[in-house]
Write a structure and sequence with these properties.
By secondary structure, the protein is mainly alpha-helical. The chain contains six helices and no strands. The radius of gyration is 17 Å and the shape is globular. The two termini are 23 Å apart.
């Protein structure tokens, strides 16, 4: 019983991150409409938004999803909210790639999609036992460090440019609330 209660609390708390990503996507989509209407002179819809940060959010969500898959039985409270957040991060990456036409970012975008396609296979096959769980734990630790680096990069971009551009304050407030 305690497992389900704490699992539900953890899942509901993490939904703040999902909500934050939705706020970020909505801001980018709003800016895209403004850009198409000519109301964003000299700016792209994803201006100042750090690919580094969005990719780090994706990696962290994917790492926790992969970790949840490696457990027997799978931890659904941990896994599925991170799966949704990873999909939303991919959607944000798509918007950035659409604006910036950069080969490296495009490769990262398709790599993220490739990892998400492989995840259900991992869920179904469960090819590893203890080694897989250990690898997934290491990935979670690495993703946490990468996430901290991504947020630092976003702050530096804002400070350097002197504006927030497409960065959503609500996204960051929601992520902070979910921590």
């Amino acid at each position: 019983m305690a497992y389900h209660v704490t699992g539900m609390i953890a899942a509901l708390t993490f939904l703040f991150t999902v909500l934050g990503e939705i706020f970020q996507l909505r801001k980018v989509w709003q800016r895209r409409r403004e850009h198409e209407a000519g109301r964003l002179p000299g700016e792209t819809p994803t201006a100042v938004l750090s690919v580094n940060q969005i990719m780090s959010v994706y990696l962290a969500c994917f790492a926790f999803f992969l970790y949840a898959l490696s457990l027997t039985p799978m931890n659904h409270y941990l896994g599925w909210p991170r799966f949704v957040a990873a999909i939303l991060a991919i959607m944000l990456l798509r918007e950035i790639v659409r604006d910036r036409q950069d080969t490296v970012w495009r490769a990262l975008y398709f790599a993220a999609i490739g990892l998400m396609v492989c995840a259900p296979l991992i869920l179904w096959l469960k090819p590893w036992k203890d080694a897989g769980a250990l690898a997934a734990q290491g990935l979670v630790i690495a993703a946490t460090v990468i996430l901290a680096q991504g947020y630092t990069h976003q702050i530096l971009l804002i400070r350097r440019s002197g504006r927030t551009g497409a960065v959503s304050l609500r996204f960051h407030q929601c992520v902070l609330a979910s921590g």
